[in-house]
Specification:
- By secondary structure, the chain is α/β, with parallel strands linked by helices.
- The protein folds into 2 domains: 64 residues; 204 residues, Vaccinia Virus protein VP39 (Rossmann fold, 3-Layer(aba) Sandwich), CATH 3.40.50.
- Helix content is 37%, strand content 20%.
- It has a 7-stranded mixed beta sheet, with helices on both faces.
- β8 and β9 form a beta hairpin.
- α1 packs across α2 and α2 runs antiparallel to α4.
- The N and C termini lie far apart (65 Å).
C-alpha cells in the first residue's frame, strides 16, 4: 500500500473503533514509524510502503484501536514546544496545562522583587518543573511527587532536556517532606471526582489512578495542599493550580477562608475555568 492508502484505510478503521481524531492518530503513528515529521507524509502520498515498514506499525494500530493512548505508543509528546518522554508512570501531558505555564510566566516576568524559589507539587512526568527551569534559569526549582515511578520519569525528562542538575527531585506527600519557603507553589494535582473515574475516556484510564482520583468532590487533595502551605510559602507568595470543570469558584471561596487574596481564574480554550492563581497572606 501507499502512504495515502495506509492513512485513509487506517483512519476508517480507527473511526469504527471510536478513536478520536482518527486521521491525526494514524498520521502520528506512521510518521513516527518512518522517522519523519507529519507534514512530510503529505509530500509522499504515492510512495509504496514495504512490509518491513508496515510490520511495527500494525501492532501499534491494534493497540491504539483498543484504547491505548497515542502518547504511550509514541513514547513521547510535546508540551510548551519541547518533547517529553511519556509512559504509564505518570499523567500524559495535556495542552490545557500550558495555560498554567503561560499565566505563571506572565506574572514571573513582572514581579518585583524577582521570585527565587518554585516548587512543583505532584510533578508527574516533570513537565511543569522542567519548563519553568528552562524558561526562568534564575529560579531554584523543586519537583515533588509521592510516586517513585513518576519521579524517575521526571528525572529522565530533565536529563533529556539538560536541566537535571538544576532541579531538586523530592519524594513527598504534597509538601510534607519539603523544606524551606517558596515564592511560587504550582500544582496540577488529581482533581477528578472518584465517582466520575469509571466514566472517563478509555485512554485516560491508562493514566495512573493516583494521578486522577481527587476524592468525592475532586478537590480533596487540592484542599489538603492548601491547608499544608502555611510555613512553606514566602511572604506575598503565590499559589497556581490547575482545576477541573466547576471547581474554580468553590475553591476560590475555600481560599478566601484560608487567608488568600487576589484570586484570579483563567478559562481554557473550551471555556472551562481551568487555572486559579492566588496570593497568600
Amino acid at each position: 500500500m501507499t502512504v495515502l492508502e495506509v492513512l485513509q484505510n487506517t483512519a476508517v478503521y480507527f473511526a469504527k473503533k471510536q478513536v478520536e481524531h482518527p486521521r491525526l492518530n494514524i498520521e502520528h503513528l506512521l510518521a513516527d514509524a518512518l522517522g519523519k515529521k507529519r507534514i512530510e507524509l503529505y509530500l509522499e502520498f504515492d510512495r509504496p510502503l514495504s512490509d518491513r515498514e508496515l510490520e511495527p506499525l500494525r501492532e501499534k494500530v491494534r493497540r491504539r484501536a483498543e484504547g491505548e493512548p497515542l502518547q504511550h505508543l509514541l513514547g513521547h509528546w510535546d508540551f510548551f514546544g519541547r518533547t517529553f518522554k511519556t509512559d504509564r508512570r505518570a499523567l500524559i501531558p495535556r495542552s490545557e496545562t500550558e495555560l498554567l505555564v503561560e499565566e505563571v510566566l506572565k506574572r514571573l516576568a513582572i514581579r518585583e522583587p524577582k521570585a527565587s524559589r518554585l516548587v512543583d507539587v505532584g510533578t508527574g512526568s516533570g513537565i511543569l518543573a522542567i519548563t519553568f527551569a528552562l524558561e526562568q534559569p534564575e529560579l531554584e526549582v523543586v519537583a515533588a511527587d509521592i510516586s517513585d515511578d513518576a519521579l524517575a520519569l521526571a528525572h529522565e525528562n530533565a536529563e533529556r532536556l539538560g536541566v537535571s542538575q538544576r532541579i531538586a527531585f523530592r519524594r513527598s506527600d504534597l509538601l510534607d517532606q519539603i523544606d524551606g519557603s517558596f515564592d511560587w507553589i504550582v500544582a496540577n494535582l488529581p482533581y477528578i471526582p472518584t465517582a466520575d473515574i469509571s466514566g472517563l475516556q478509555r485512554e485516560v484510564r491508562f493514566d495512573p489512578p493516583i494521578a486522577l482520583d481527587g476524592g468525592e468532590d475532586g478537590l480533596a487533595i487540592v484542599k489538603k495542599l492548601i491547608e499544608s502551605i502555611p510555613g512553606k510559602i514566602a511572604s506575598n507568595g503565590v499559589v497556581a493550580l490547575e482545576l477541573g470543570q466547576g471547581q474554580a469558584q468553590p475553591l476560590s471561596n475555600f481560599l478566601a477562608r484560608q487567608n488568600y487574596r487576589d484570586v484570579s481564574i483563567m478559562k481554557d480554550y473550551q471555556g472551562v475555568e481551568r487555572v486559579l492563581i492566588a496570593r497568600y497572606g
